[in-house]
Every structure is written in structure tokens, then in C-alpha cells.
């Protein structure tokens, strides 16, 4: 840093130099002096409301607030450690803060981790001189299904209201009234439905905002605290998991400025009940003669599998396939990839539930090993292009970074694709395309003569974020665009294990470290470490596996953490395949529809919080997590199961612990130089035909996902399932906002309330992927294509009565 | 206003039949100041206001010309002039009579002020309760538009100025200029962090000046009559005529115009002297925020500097006179309840301090105070003064601290005798405090820790 930008002064006699504009409270922290504070939060704008952080500044007659005063050159600043004025001032404010505080610490959830409690003990007087009447309010008030408000405890620091306004950008919570009656409240006509509301519980400096699910559960000094990494999406948020007597009590955001700063989303915070839900699989099971699943021993279950594999080999090659959901720890993904290739000797493997375009394997291999966009790059980008991705619904913490860039540096957000989704409020410009047209639109921006292209070519490094729903070749096109404007590209898949699966080569034709099966050199490098010969021809992807399975050409289908009957792009094809395959193995956490209806062998596995491992987020950042609790007695980690299966099939995978797997992954490493990007295929223009729509299935954050089972309070804040359609199309079909419509494809139909919007391209509807009894995939044909018609069933008023599900029913 | 005023300057059109009509206003010298202003450079207008030594009439007494010269020019953003017509200081009634007696005076002042700072948009933030003033100002603004004083081409000068009347939702805090701006933007009225100051980032983050009604209305007079006309009254540091409201135990409480610099005793004389049988005990020179002064101080001159010398402030021109039949504790309690009620709630000292002090004072006044309470009052005030977010907290302490300073014995007598010695307030326990009002808010329940939230049963 330039010397001119530094300010030198003293705090309590110690000299310090900090950048110009630094607040006194931050400068003091650098010296290890913590000035007491309530309203101050380093990630929120200063407000100066609580008046606790009084310091004495040389030359200033009045006490100064350390949280709103910036440092001044050569001044002597004195804190409570050396200034009687500061010490007495702080004591005085604390006494005032406690005037209306109920002092009910013994029964308050915040007790033991309460800044008010701690600072009153450290900086306050021993006794209260207040003998009059405290103000009283009803309590607790449920401001949302998961947050309880105690207005008597509130010190009105406005952290919660500032968070919702400044960080999450959804100010559903506000201060009302004035004087001592000032209080936090929500609006009468707008429920507090934010995906980030749990953060206000964590930053509340008193016990005013507490969690419904953690209420009266535990004391901070009674819990065991374990650092973890969230497994709900690819954001990679650092978490703190707290357990008591082996049971998780709550999850908190753990500060990681590079990733989630100090925040997380409500799904990450409250979504851990699936581990103890009734749906949880706790023992191996086999389907009996009677068609019902019955408990079995591990030996029985594993031997059943090896027998099925042997039997299929009798029939011929290519009759075993593996589909792993993108939910695995990195180590497990690697070992599943190795097991499939070396033990099952097949490349019939996928980690996606989408039917991916052929070019994607080449794109994903080209991605690995490249310098791609990080959270910091997104925050610093003057222009952010988003294609095929709705960050708030899919990777919420990325949404917070977009919001931060938008708010703090006025970043211009450009959305490429058929709809804006939740970026509607932040988007600067949209580049509308039909579904699948994203790649061409991204390429067109390179040479474009329009304000978006001009902005991209201007000063600074833009970020190009390509999600899973962007059409074939979008990642390559995004990379080309980023390269042309000196920016950064990133691939942002939704699921937590997606990036790890790509790194591990968990897809047909894709080998670990960005290598390709079809590349002789790549194959040889992997063969050398795996001590085996690999198949030379790329295998089948999910679509081909399911199609062949449905045609009776697959004998054993091993599913690891994936609910194909619900999540596959075509539920019709998936269910047909699952019904046909003689041996379906489900290695999973929960009794999903696939497990109950189709599994022949069920293998119970550990959840994220029940084991150690590593996880790689969308940025490509790998983080370790530790075991917080023991799972049910009989569950095993995915990699352990694979090691045993390999052994029973006569193979030694060469590893028997996580360290061994990590060492082998490191030995193999990434390809020395990444593969070149492939050629962008010509877009396939969808032509649904007259009166028909192309549907986009977008997942909502809080939906019927397996890992939300049992999270009642959380699910009560789920956004309602809607079919979004263009205002023009709506008018043509006589559909008004709020009408109940049937979305129909063949014999399949979903009944949904219509949301008429102006940000959709004509001829497109957006459906919630997994928020209805039957998923959106039920409307797809066997190629996963979603072409639908709309029928109006009832107008808004009737629809309201008919479909207004009580909150929580989505579960 | 009228015969008994010491001088007739800014009140010259008060009582003129039909002066709320623009023609009548024009016949009485109206819009001549604006005509002069259009012949001047903006900086010349500001210089005239500086030379006249106009100090802000809203309470703080900051030089108006200097304030206008601080407004950031050439930022590429629009500049706003905002009139603070949210007259709410207890005891103050001088802006409302001005607006009701001579509404065009303010409209003309706003246009001139706009020209001075290169603003093309002005707002009058009028206290919502002032319905009549609002009606008159609306009419005045409409007539000014019709006559071409407002709009795209002010009097054919090619300069634009638009003026909007905003009827404020009403809260004492919205008289604080940054809270006023928030309220004008449609937000909750709470003071903003400074810096940035309104002159750099005010209304909608644009350069803004906020001035009191009387300050703005003064400017056309100065341009029309010249600077010397204005400075014929007052002292070097306190110039011009001043509109005052004299209230309390005087024979003719009312709104008067006086020259700055007369002894304050004359203010009582102008208001007809003390009420019969009453003797001056204490007074507030400029509204409840200015510390009360004992009778001895009445001989001080009515200037910014002399009143500060005497231990108070000139404030808002609200002279409140209290006789020997008034209880000082009762008066202080009344003001404290006002501040308790009007605290915006943003900062701890003002919010909690006002709540606490009102209860302590109530106990003392009704005879259940202790001597320790007197020290407590002082110490709590010490913890509020200089620590609150805005001046409201400081103002809250001034009647209490001044009351204790000058009349501690009377406070002690309340404690000693267990009642108000003057019998002003009989011992009682039914004074509504916030604690009681909280219950009136529909929250009248004992804390119910066992209650489950809705849907959780």
C-alpha cells in the first residue's frame, strides 16, 4: 500500500498505521483491543445506533463513537483501557441498554454466547439503579415459521434490518414505532420469506431473534462444535455444526471471507433434519420374494450384489452401469470412478440427472485445471454475465455476492437465457434467447455492437457464470467470451458434489483430473496409477444407460445417492428403466421413491455431518470437513462400501482410508495442461409447434428434495410452486396472473398457479423442477424434452382457495 | 400580530386583507425581492445574505449564507432546497403565523433561495397538522405557477424552479434536517449519519440545503430593501428583526416581531407584562430544548451571544414565561415526557434515557422520590448528553440539568415533603408513562415464556 494512503496515530499510546478511511473500531481490533459494541458489524454499513463503542479522541470535546469515526492522522485515541471518559461512557450506555432489558438470561437461548451478557459482565456495573417499570411486549412473536422475536430483549441495534436491506436485499423486516416503543416487526401484508433469514438470528447481539428449531435445546457450553462444509449446494459454505449427546442441535455460518463471508442460507442452516428423519435408511435391505424390502446383513447385501455382477458377466459385457448423484465427497467420487472403470470394467457412468449434450464431456474436461472465476472475481467484476443459472434458487451464497457487487460497486448484471428468475431485481440488461440458445448469444456478445458488449469490453475483468441449464456449448462459449474481454468464466452446477464428480471423472468418457478416455496419453496416465487397462471406447451417459436399461440391455444398475425415479430428466424413461433392470442397487441416505419402488439391494450410507471428507465447490475450491456426530450404527461411507465390493469381486482398490485415497488422487493429479475447448455446436432451435410451449424446469431452493425431509419450519418458508409464463402468451391463452392452469404433456399433467411475467421469452414456460407431487420431469418425453400445453382451469380467486396449501405442505 | 409589536418588518403584510392572493401580495412589494434576485449572480445573492448576517431561525443559529455557500456545485447532480416547516418545538409558534398570514413570502423566498444555490427544485416540508397553512401554501404555489414565478422560465429569465409542498406525516424528529430528508424520501424519519452532510449528499444523495421558514422568508426582504435595512436592527453577531412567540404567565401571550438585541425583560413588557398577581420565576428563552433560566437572567439581551452567556440558547424564538405559581419539577416532567414520546428510538441514550428520566421525575413530582434520585437524574443526563446520535438527546437533558442547577432546593422539597410543595400536582400514580402505553398497544400481557408460536403447538 502507498504510504500516502496510510494514516498513523495512536490507540492507548500504541502507534498504528492503517489505510485512510478505516474506522477506529477496526483499527483497535488490529491491536487486539476489542471496544464493546452491539450495532457495529464489519459487513454492515455503520449506523452508530447503540452508542456503546465510546472512545476519547484527542481534541474532540465530546465522546466519539469508534464504529462511525474514521481514523485521523497523529491523533491520540484512548479506549476504555486508558480513558476514564470512555470507560464511564461505556458503563453509562450499558446501564441504559439494560433499562428495558428483561434480564432473563437463565431462560434465554442466547445465554452463554450473548454479547450483551458478556459485555455487561465485562464493562458494566454490578447493580442496576433502575427501579421503575420496564416496557412489556407480547412474546415471543413468530416473525416467520423459523424465527421468534422477543421485543423486550431487543436493543434495537438494527443489525437484522440492515442485514435484510444491505446483504440479502429482501427487507421484509423493519423497525416500527419510536422511542422506547421502537420495535422490530414484519409487514402485515408481506411475510418474512427470505432464504437468508437465519443469519439475523446469528448476528442478533441479544436473544431477541431466536430459532424456532433450536429453542430451549442447548447451551453453547453444552455443545460440541465441529467445523464443516455445507452439502446442500455447490456454494461450499463453511459451517459450524453443534451437537449435544451425539445429536445435531443446530448449524451456524462459519466465517470464511473467501466463500460465504459470515453468512449462509436457511437451507444450509436449518436443513439437517434429514439425517434423523423417519425416511433415513439405517440398515441394509434386500427385496424379498414378496416384493417387500426386508432388513439384511451387510454381508448378505454385498454378496447379493457380487452375485448379480457375476451373473451379468455371464450374459455378456456392458450390462452393468453406475449412476452417482452429484452429492458425494470428493474422495468417494474418485473411488467410485476408479471402481467402475477397474472393477466393473465399464465406462457406463454418469453423475448427472440431466441428459447432457454430447459436447459436455469435452467441455468439462477442458474446464479442469483452468483459472476460473472465484467469489472474489465475481465481487470485483464490473459486468457479470449469468446464463442458465438462477443463483438465489440454486447457489444462494453466490446470489449474495452478486447482490454485494451490485450494491457496493454497481456491477452490471446481464442475464442470458429465456428468463430472469430471481435476478429480475438486480439485472441490468437481459439477452433473451430460446432455451438452448445461450451459447450462440454468448458468442455474439464477443463482437457485438451493443451496450452489453461495450460494457464487457470496458475497464475491469467481467465474470461469466454458466449454469447447468444453459444449452449445449454454453460453457465453451462463455469461456470464449471471458477470454475475449479479459474476464473469468466459471461453471456453476447446483449440487454440492458436482464439481468433485467432474474432477474425479464421474462421467462416461471423462477421467480424473480433466483427462479424456478417448485420449491415449490421458488414458495411459490413469492406467499407470490404477495398474489396469481401461476401456478405450467412451461408455454410455445417463440417457443411453436408461434407454438401454428400458430396452432390457442392463442387468445391474448401481445408484449412489440419486433418486432417478424423481430427479431424472425424463421420469417416464427412468421409471421404465428401473422397472426393467433385474438388480437395482440403491446406496443412499433416505428411502426415496427409487428405493421404495425399485431397489433390490439397499445400502445405508453416512451423511456429511457423520463423517470426514473433502468437498470441492463451484469455484474449484476444495475444503475438508470433519465428523460432527456418529450416524446410525450400521451406515457406512460410500468409499468404504466400494472398497468392500471391489474386494468381494476379487479386486484391491489399493486404498483403505481417506488419507490413502487423497494420496492417490494427488499422485494422479490433474492433466499437465487442460484440454482445449471444443467447438460450440450449432444451436438446435426448439420448435414446439403452434399453441405449445418449451418448458424450463428450474429447481427452487426449498422443494421436495430428499435432504429437506423433516425440516418443517424451514419448508414452511418455501416459495409457492408456480408456472411462469410470458404476459403475451398469457393473454393469448386467456390466462391471468393467479389462475390455476394445467400444464399438460401427453397423459401427464401438473396443476399449478400461473405467474404472468414480462421477463420470459415468448413460447417458454418455467416450471419448478421438484416442488409438486410429480416432478416437472414427469412431463418430459423419453429424450428429456419438455414440450407442454396449458389449460386454464380456474380463475385467480378459485385457484387461491383450491391451491393455497398451508405452509409446510410441500414436505 | 400588530400594534404591540416592537417593530414591523417581516410581518409588514400580516393582517393585510387578501394577501394570500398573489395580486394583493404584488401590490404590497411582493416578488420585488425575486425581481432583484434575477438581476444578480447566484453568489451575489449568497453574499447579500452573508452581509446581512442572517442566522438560521430554526434553533441552531447557523449563518444562512454560509450554509448556502457549502452546497456542492457542479457535481452533475440536481441541487435541492428544502424548507423545514415542521415547526414542532414546544412553545414555538412563529412559522405557522408567517405561513398563514403571508404565504407568498415563503414561496418567494424559496425561489430566491433556489436561484442562490442553482437549485431547480424546492420542497416545503410542512408539518402535517398545519392544514390551513397547507391550503394557503398550495394556493400560493399554484398562483405563482400561473403568474410565471415558478416553472420552466421564472419571470422570463430562462431559469427553472419548481416547488412542491409536502405535508409531512409528523414527528418532532423530522425537524432534524437529515431525518426530515429521510422522511421526505418516504422513509422512516430518523437522523442520518454525518458526514456526508446534506450540502454534499442530502435529498436523494444530492447536494441539498435545509432552511427554516423564517430564514428563507427573510431573504426577499433583504434583496428588496437592501442589507442595511436588515442590519439596522440587532447587534453585530445577531442581526435583523425576529419573530417570537411569547407564552406562559404573561398578560397577552402571542406572536410578536421584535428587533434583535433588546433586553429580554422587554419581551415580557411587549406581551403586556406578567399576569396579574404573578411574579416571574423562570423562563425558557427559545423552546424546551434551551435550558430554562431563573428570573435574574431576564435582563440579558435577546441575542444569540448574550443568551449563551446567560447559560441557554436563543433557540426557536419561543419565549416561555413561568411565574412563582408554577412548579419547576412539573414543568421539567412535562418537557421530559415530550422528549420521551418524540425520541425516534434510533440511539440508546435518548431512547432509554428519556424513558427512565420520565419515570424518575414522575416519582419526584408525585412525592415518592428519594434524594438519591436527584443525583440519578444528573448522572443519567450526563450519560445522555454528548452521547446521543443527534441533538434530540442533548435537548432532553437540558430542562432537567438546568432545573436541578437553578432549583435544586425545590426538587429536594418535593422529596422531603413527599408531595409537590406548591400543590401543583397532587400525589398520584396514574400518570400515563410509556410502560402503560405499551400495554395500550395491544401488548398487555405478562411475559409468557411458555407460549408457543403460531403453528408450533
Count of helical segments of chain B?
A: 17
- Estimated helix fraction of chain B: 40-55%
Oligomer: heterodimer
Number of separate helices of chain A: 26
Largest interface: pair, residues per side: A-B, 54 and 52 residues
Rg of chain A (CA only): 28 Å
Strand content of chain A: 15-25%
Tags for this entry?
heterodimer, A: 811 residues, alpha/beta, Ubiquitin-like (UB roll), Alpha-Beta Plaits, Rossmann fold, 7-stranded mixed beta sheet, 6-stranded mixed barrel, 26 helices, 35 strands, 28% helix, globular, disordered C terminus, B: 457 residues, de novo design (two linked rop proteins), 3 domains, 5-stranded mixed beta sheet, 4-stranded parallel beta sheet, 17 helices
Task: Characterise this structure.
The complex is a heterodimer of chains A (811) and B (457). Chain A has 811 residues and is an alpha/beta fold. Chain A has five domains: 3-99, Ubiquitin-like (UB roll) (Roll), CATH 3.10.20.740; 132-275, 2-Layer Sandwich (Alpha-Beta Plaits); 285-359 and 499-668, Rossmann fold, CATH 3.40.50.740; 374-486, Dimethylsulfoxide Reductase, domain 2 (3-Layer(aba) Sandwich), CATH 3.40.228.10; 693-803, Barwin-like endoglucanases. Helix content of chain A is 28%, strand content 20%. Chain A contains 26 helices and 35 strands. In chain A, the strands form nine sheets. In chain A, strands 15-14-27-26-25-16-17 form a seven-stranded mixed β-sheet, with helices on both faces. In chain A, helix 2 packs across helix 3 (115-123), helix 8 packs parallel to helix 16 (498-504) and helix 8 packs parallel to helix 22. The longest helix of chain A has 18 residues, at 298-315. The model of chain A is unreliable at 805-811 (pLDDT under 50). With 457 residues, chain B is α/β, with parallel strands linked by helices. Chain B has helices spanning 22-27, 32-38, 42-52, 64-70, 95-101, 103-116, 131-146, 177-184, 213-225, 227-231, 264-270, 304-309, 328-342, 348-365, 371-384, 391-417, 434-440, and strands at residues 80-85, 121-127, 162-168, 208-212, 241-248, 254-259, 280-284, 293-294, 318-323. In chain B, a hairpin with a 5-residue loop joins strand 5 and strand 6 (254-259). In chain B, helix 14 packs parallel to helix 16 (391-417). Chain B is globular. Chain B starts with 21 loop residues before the first helix and ends in a 17-residue tail after the last helix.
